[in-house]
Write a structure and sequence with these properties.
By secondary structure, the chain is mainly β. The radius of gyration is 14 Å and the shape is globular. The termini are far apart.
Length: 118
Amino acid sequence: QVQLVESGGGLVQPGGSLRLSCAATGITFRLYTMGWYRQAPGNQRELVATITTGGITTSADSVKGRFTVSRDNGKNTVYLQMNNLKSEDTAVYYCKAERRAPGLYEYWGQGTQVAVSS
């Protein structure tokens, strides 16, 4: 059974930092591209950042220079370091594991809430 469990969310003031973690079980983690997505109330889920099996990262323009995605294959965990948080970063953050090998294998976590407010 595949499980992705996010943690590290919470309430933070503007300008603050949080580090999200997503621990995966039930998959060969090193074979999966990992991604962070977020969904604010009334909005569609959007891509935040991804990291490939080879460690290549991409991120949305809105978080470039503030958020950093990384992975530890030994711990089957992907991280999202979020700095200089803004109110518009408030959302539920989800991690996703994806592999095309052939066929698409895609798994989602349950999400963790991030609230940025003074």
